[in-house]
Amino acid sequence: MTRDETRRNASTDKLERTLAERGEAYARVTVVRREPPVSANVGDRAVVTRDGNIEGWIGGMSCAQSIVADEATAAVDDGEPRLLGIAPDPNGVDRPGLSAFPMTCHSEGVLELFVEPVTPAPDLLVVGGSPVARSLARLAAELDVDVTLVDADGEGEGDLPAETNVETTTDPADLVACVGPEPLVVVASMGECDARGVTAGVRADAAYVGLVASDARSSEVIERAARVLETDADTVRSAVTNPAGVDVAAHTPAEIAASILAEIVDVRGGHETAAATTVGGPSAGGDEADEATDPVCGMTVDPADAAASVDHDGETYHFCCGGCAESFRTDPAAYLADDESTVAP
Q1: Which residue blocks in 94-214 are alpha helix, DSSP H?
Q2: CB count, 10 Å around CB of 229?
Q3: Within a 13 Å sphere around the CA of 183, how many CA atoms are in the beta-carbon half?
Q4: What is the pLDDT of residues 79-132, one digit of tens each?
Q5: Quick one: which H or E segment has residue 9?
Q6: Domains in the chain and their CATH numbers?
Q7: CA gap 16, 59 in Å, rounded
Q8: CB of 296 within 8 A of CB of 328?
Q9: Can you say how many angstroms the Cα of residue 208 is from the centroid of all Cα atoms in its chain?
Q10: Predicted TM-score (pTM) of this structure
């Protein structure tokens, strides 16, 4: 490799580091075969940004660069690598696994290029210190995501993986600053700061905003977030998945977290969000009389081990956390209107 080639590749290396630090996806293009006359050499590289800008060296032919820009941006979008052949006679290089294109420039040379999409690990912002939120942060450590848990109570890392970033701020602007572009956001604060979490998710243009809440509380959260965002509630509602998670009989915090994680995997794979989780229903083979449902978030609660309980209108309601209990005390009717069956036995 010549000194000029080494310098050019060092320049693309620097750009790749910069894009990775920003959390921006891009494509790496490498010349893997050439036939003269072409100005590129085997091993020459370029970086193609998501908007199609080419930085680096793969030859000076404008027709080749146009093809590379189009194919590289498509690779970034679908996550699939490509092997390209550009020749005066595409049939001469066409073979299985290679996409052949005509060389429309005056050059008679041939280029074969490997296009590799590079997608930095997305940020997963989990808003809340609830059992569901902490379970999700633990399970997500097994995936290629950078996890930030927002715990306003400041309980710290505790049982979280060492690589989990813990924040205590709940200001939406600060939360947006904690993550890169198109993050994944799950709001499971159980009434503590749900509207702030949803606001942050919408402001960050999140690829997914999941909310763990009952229908009644979800409507309240969306209305509050819409006021902060100065937009209509329908716009916010269309960006939020509630209840978060795939449709399984999830009851415990770990089960709910697993269902949410499954939905996140599905979203990252480019699919539509799955059906909402069935939260708080009777577990298979379980004893319904030994369980209650938190009327605020819908989580199944063991009355003997409930974080809080509230007596209202001759009935006792059990809650997974103090935030849900306080929300219920403030406005019980908002949470009983949906489902009177949430009354504890």
Answers
A1: 131-140, 172-177, 194-203
A2: 18
A3: 26
A4: 899 999 999 899 999 999 999 999 877 667 899 999 999 988 889 999 999 999
A5: helix 3-22
A6: 3-118 (no CATH), 123-279 (3.40.50.720), 288-342 (no CATH)
A7: 19
A8: yes
A9: 5
A10: 0.65
What does the pLDDT look like over 292-328, one tens digit per residue? Answer: 888 877 677 778 777 788 888 888 888 877 767 877 8
Strand partners, 118: 26
In the structure encoding, which two tokens stand for residue 6, read together? 């080494």
3-state secondary structure of 21: helix
Contact 225, 202 (CB under 8 A): yes
Closest to 132 in 3D by CA, of 197, 183, 180, 179: 197
| Strand 184-187, strand 208-211: pairing | parallel
Helix 253-268 × helix 131-140 angle, to 10°: 50
- Would you list the DSSP string of 211-280? E---HHHHHHHHHHHHHHHTS-HHHHHHH-BSS-S-SSEE-SHHHHHHHHHHHHHHHHTTPPP-PPPEES
Residue whose C-alpha is closest to residue 70's, from 29, 127, 131: 29
3-class DSSP assignment, residue 114: strand
Residue 136's alpha-carbon distances to 131, 133, 269, in angstroms, are: 8, 5, 19
**Interatomic CA distance for residues 214 and 209, integer angstroms:** 15
Nearest to 128 by CA among 273, 322, 331, 335: 322
Beta-sheet pairing, 292-293 with 278-279: unpaired
